[in-house]
UniProtKB/TrEMBL annotation:
Protein name: Membrane protein
Cellular component per GO, a single term: membrane
Source species of the chain: Actinoplanes siamensis
Protein keywords: Membrane, Transmembrane, Transmembrane helix
Compartments (UniProt record): Membrane
Coiled coil: none
Length: 296
C-alpha cells in the first residue's frame, strides 16, 4: 500500500474517530455521570497506551518533563474533556462538534505574537467568531442552561488551543506515544478520586452506556491519538490538521441521523462561517507544531 493511500485511510480514520466522541458522550451520560465518563475514558486510554509506549521504549523521553506534562494533561484532557461532557448535558452533540471547530481560529489568535495578523487572517477571525455568534444566538438563545453548555464547549476549544501552544513550546520533541500515555495516565490519577463519588447504583447502567464509554477510551482517545500522529508523519502537519474541518461534519451527521437532533439553516450558516474562518485564519501554512491537538 502506497504512502498516499495509507495517509488517506488514516485521514478518514481520524476524521471519524474525532467526529464520534460527541455522539458517544451523549449516550454515555444517559446512565453515567460526566465525571465518571471522563475518568473512565482516560483510564481505558491509559491502559491501552502505556504498553505501546513501553514496548517502543519511548517513555524515558519524559524524564525531567513531569511539570509540563502534568500541565498538558490538565489543559489537553482533564479540563476540556470535563467541559465538553458537562456541556453536552445542555446542548446537542452536533452543536458541540461544530463549536469545537472554532479551535483553529483561537490558535491563530494565540499565535498572533509570533505570526502577525494579516488582513486575510483578520477576516478569518471575524468570520469564525461570527459563526459562533450565529450558532449560539439561534440554537440556544433564551435557554440559560443551553448558553452555559455552549460556553463550556467554547472554553474547551480555548483549552485545546492553549495545549497546542504548550506542545509547540515545550514538548514537541517528545515521542507522541510517550506523551499521550503520560497525559492520559496523569489525567486518570487526577480524576479517579472524584469519580469514586459518582459511581452508579448496581445494575442501573445499560450496556449501551458501557459500550459508549469503552469506545470513547479505546477508539476516540487511544487509537485516535496514535493514528493522528502517524498521519502527521506520512502527510505532514498541514494536511493532517485538515481533520479539524471534517470531524464536525461527522459529529453533526451522527447527531441528526442517530439522535434525531435538529439542524436548521442557522446551524448550517454558522458552521460554514466557522469553516471559512478556520481556513482564512490559518493562511499561510503554519509550522508543524501549530496544528490543533484536540482529542475529544
Amino acid at each position: 500500500m502506497g504512502v498516499n493511500r495509507r495517509a488517506w485511510l488514516l485521514f478518514v480514520l481520524v476524521s471519524v474517530l474525532w467526529g464520534i466522541p460527541y455522539f458517544l458522550i451523549k449516550i454515555a451520560i444517559d446512565d453515567l455521570s460526566p465525571m465518571l465518563v471522563v475518568a473512565g475514558r482516560c483510564a481505558i486510554a491509559a491502559a491501552a497506551l502505556l504498553p505501546v509506549a513501553a514496548l517502543r521504549g519511548s517513555l524515558p523521553a519524559l524524564r525531567g518533563r513531569l511539570p509540563v506534562t502534568g500541565l498538558l494533561a490538565l489543559v489537553h484532557i482533564v479540563g476540556p474533556f470535563l467541559l465538553i461532557t458537562y456541556g453536552e448535558q445542555h446542548i446537542s452533540s452536533s452543536l458541540t462538534g461544530i463549536l469545537i471547530a472554532i479551535e483553529p481560529v483561537v490558535i491563530a489568535l494565540l499565535m498572533a505574537g509570533s505570526e502577525p495578523i494579516t488582513n486575510l487572517r483578520l477576516a478569518g477571525l471575524v468570520a469564525g467568531f461570527a459563526g459562533v455568534v450565529i450558532l449560539v444566538g439561534l440554537d440556544v438563545s433564551g435557554d440559560r442552561w443551553g448558553l452555559i453548555g455552549a460556553g463550556m464547549v467554547l472554553l474547551a476549544a480555548l483549552s485545546y488551543a492553549y495545549a497546542t501552544k504548550l506542545v509547540q513550546q515545550h514538548v514537541a520533541d517528545v515521542p507522541p506515544d510517550a506523551l499521550t500515555a503520560a497525559t492520559t495516565t496523569i489525567s486518570t490519577l487526577v480524576l479517579i478520586p472524584f469519580a469514586l463519588f459518582h459511581l452508579p447504583p448496581a445494575g442501573s447502567v445499560g450496556a449501551d452506556s458501557w459500550l459508549a464509554l469503552g469506545g470513547l477510551g479505546v477508539l476516540c482517545t487511544a487509537l485516535a491519538m496514535l493514528a493522528f500522529y502517524r498521519l502527521i508523519g506520512l502527510a505532514g502537519s498541514n494536511k493532517a490538521g485538515l481533520v479539524t474541518y471534517v470531524n464536525p461534519v461527522v459529529a453533526a451527521l451522527l447527531g441528526v441521523a442517530l439522535l434525531h437532533e435538529p439542524v436548521g439553516v442557522g446551524t448550517v450558516a454558522g458552521f460554514l462561517l466557522i469553516v471559512a474562518g478556520c481556513w482564512l485564519s490559518t493562511r499561510p501554512a503554519r509550522s508543524p507544531a501549530e496544528i490543533p491537538v484536540n482529542a475529544v
